[in-house]
UniProtKB/TrEMBL annotation:
Keywords: Aminotransferase, Pyridoxal phosphate, Transferase. It comes from the Bacteria. This is 4-aminobutyrate aminotransferase-like enzyme. PROSITE patterns: AA_TRANSFER_CLASS_3. Pfam families: Aminotran_3 (PF00202).
Length: 452
C-alpha cells in the first residue's frame, strides 16, 4: 500500500511543498508526542509540525473545543460576527495591555504568511506608503510575495519575492560571530553596525534633509526559527529598539513560530524587554487544528484610515473553528502555570543535549530557551557546518529502526539554520520527563549510528 501511494505521489503531487528525503514517510496516526506509521511503529516527534502543535497531537481539551464548535456554529461568513472571534480578539488585546500597557486591536487571517502580508500592508500605509523594510539575515516570514521579499534566503526571495525592497541586517548569531567577542558585546556590535546606516545619506536609508528614513518597519523574530533557533543576547532588542525609536521605524515582531509558550512565555519577545508596535501570530494558536493567524497592532496604527472597513478581508479569516480552538488554547495556558513548566522542561532537555555535546565531537553548539532547542551539527572540529551529516540524521531517524529499550522506533526531526546544519527541536510542550530521557537516548543512538 505504501509503495502504491508513493508512486501516485511521485506522479501527481507538486513537489513544491514537500521535502523529499531518501526515506519518504507516510504517517497514519498521531497522539501526544508521537506519530505512528502504518505498521504502528512510533516516531517521537521533536518538531511538532514546525512548532504548530505545541500542546500535543490530539490534545483532548482542544479537540473537544473544536468538536463543540463543529456541532454548533462551524461556518459563518466573516462579515458577520460570532462570539469566539470577539472573545479571542479581546483576550489577545487585553493580554497586551497587561504585559506592555499598550492598547491595540487584533485583525485575523488564515495562515502565517497571510498575517505577515497584513502586517506589511499596515505598516506601509501607516508610514505613508514607504515600501522598504528591514529584516534580519537568517529571518523567515513566509512564502507569499510580500513575506518572501522580507525573508533573507536568496533562493526563495529571488524566485518569489518580487515585491518591496528589504534590507537585511545581521542578527547576533554568536556561535558564528567574530572570535573573542562575548555574546552581549556581539549584540551591541550588531546594533552599532545597524545604527551606522543612519549616520549619512550615503548609507542609503536616511534622508537628513527631510529627517526621515525611507523604511517603514523592522520585521524580526525574537528567536530565529527557520534560521536555526538562534537566541540573541539579553539586551539586544532593548538597544535595537532605541535606534528604531530614534528614526521612527516600527517594530514588527513575528511570533508565528516562537509564540504561544514555545519559549516559556506567551510571546517570545517578552523575554527581551521591548514592546512591539505590531505582533504577528499563527501556527500554535490553534494547536495546528484549524488554521488561524492574525496581527495585533497598537491603536495608533490599526485605525480606519489605515485599514478601512472591508479593505483587508479574506473569506476564511476569523473562521469559527479556528477562533474557538484558539480561545480555548489561550484560556488553557493562562490557567496553568504554563511558563514555569516549559522553562523547567526546557532546562532539563538542554542539560541532556549538553551531555550529548560532551560525548559527540560533531555537535558544535547546543542552546535553548524554553522548549525551543538547537543542536548544531558540524565536522569533527565542532565548527565547520556539516549539512550532509544532518541530512543523514533526519533520514535515519525517519527509517524507524533505532532501538532503545529493546524497542524499534523513530524520531521526527527538522533542519534549519543559515547552513542547513542545525536540528531545530520543538517538542510538544506537554512532553514528559520520561519522553525527554527517551529523546536524548534516541539522539544518542542516532549520532552513534551516523558517525561510527
Ligand atoms: N513566520 C515565521 C517565523 C514562520 O516560522 C513561518 C512558518 N514557518 C511563517 C512566518 C509563515 O507561516 P505559514 O507557513 O503559516 O504561512
Amino acid at each position: 500500500e505504501e509503495a502504491r501511494l508513493l508512486a501516485l505521489e511521485a506522479r501527481y503531487c507538486s513537489h513544491g511543498d514537500t521535502v523529499h528525503y531518501t526515506a519518504p514517510k507516510i504517517f497514519d496516526r498521531c497522539e501526544g508526542s508521537y506519530l505512528y506509521d502504518a505498521e504502528g511503529l512510533p516516531y517521537l516527534d521533536l518538531q511538532m509540525w514546525y512548532s504548530a502543535v505545541n500542546f500535543g497531537y490530539g490534545n483532548p481539551r482542544l479537540n473537544t473545543a473544536l468538536t463543540r464548535q463543529l456541532n454548533r456554529l462551524p461556518q459563518v461568513a466573516s462579515q458577520y460576527l460570532h462570539a469566539e472571534k470577539i472573545e479571542l480578539a479581546a483576550l489577545i488585546a487585553q493580554r497586551a495591555e497587561k504585559t506592555w500597557g499598550a492598547s491595540g486591536r487584533v485583525h485575523f487571517n488564515v495562515g502565517g504568511s497571510q498575517a505577515v502580508e497584513d502586517a506589511l500592508k499596515l505598516v506601509r500605509n501607516a508610514k505613508r506608503g514607504k515600501g522598504t523594510m528591514f529584516a534580519f539575515e537568517g529571518g523567515y516570514h513566509g512564502r507569499t510575495l510580500g513575506a518572501s521579499a522580507i525573508t533573507s534566503s536568496y533562493r526563495y526571495r529571488r524566485r518569489y519575492g518580487h515585491f518591496d525592497r528589504a534590507l537585511f541586517v545581521p542578527f547576533p548569531y554568536h556561535f558564528r560571530g567574530p572570535k573573542g567577542m562575548d555574546k552581549e558585546e556581539y549584540g551591541a556590535h550588531c546594533v552599532q553596525q545597524f545604527a551606522r546606516l543612519f549616520e549619512s545619506e550615503y548609507n542609503g536609508v536616511w534622508d537628513p534633509k527631510a529627517g526621515e528614513a525611507e523604511c517603514a518597519a523592522f520585521f524580526v523574530e525574537a528567536i530565529q526559527g527557520t534560521g536555526g533557533y538562534v537566541i540573541p543576547p539579553k539586551n539586544f532588542f532593548i538597544e535595537l529598539k532605541k535606534v528604531l525609536d530614534r528614526y521612527g521605524i516600527l517594530l514588527v515582531v513575528d511570533e508565528i513560530q516562537m509564540g504561544v509558550y514555545r519559549t516559556g512565555k506567551l510571546w517570545s519577545i517578552e523575554h527581551f524587554g521591548v514592546t512591539p508596535d505590531v505582533l504577528v501570530f499563527g501556527k500554535a494558536i490553534t494547536n495546528g487544528l484549524n488554521p488561524l493567524s492574525g496581527i495585533w497592532a497598537r491603536d495608533e496604527l490599526i485605525n480606519p484610515t489605515v485599514f478601512p472597513p472591508g479593505s483587508t478581508h479574506s473569506t476564511f479569516a476569523s473562521n469559527p473553528l479556528g477562533t474557538a480552538v484558539a480561545l480555548e488554547t489561550l484560556r488553557m495556558v493562562e490557567e496553568a502555570d504554563f511558563g514555569a513548566q516549559v522553562a523547567a522542561k526546557g532546562a532539563y532537555f538542554l542539560a541532556g543535549l549538553e551531555e550529548l555535546k560532551r560525548r559527540h565531537a560533531v555537535i558544535g553548539d547546543v542552546d535553548g530557551l524554553g522548549l525551543a532547542l538547537r543542536m548544531e551539527i558540524c565536522e569533527a572540529d565542532g565548527y565547520t557546518p556539516n549539512k550532509a551529516l544532518v541530512d543523514r540524521m533526519v533520514e535515519v531517524a525517519l527509517a524507524g529502526d533505532l532501538v532503545v529499550g529493546g524497542k524499534r522506533q523513530g524520531l521526527v526531526l527538522d533542519i534549519g539554520g543559515y547552513h542547513k546544519n542545525v536540528l531545530t527541536l520543538a517538542p510538544s510542550l506537554l512532553i514528559t520527563r520520561e519522553e525527554i530521557d527517551l529523546a536524548i537516548k534516541l539522539l544518542d543512538a542516532l549520532l552513534i549510528r551516523v558517525t561510527r
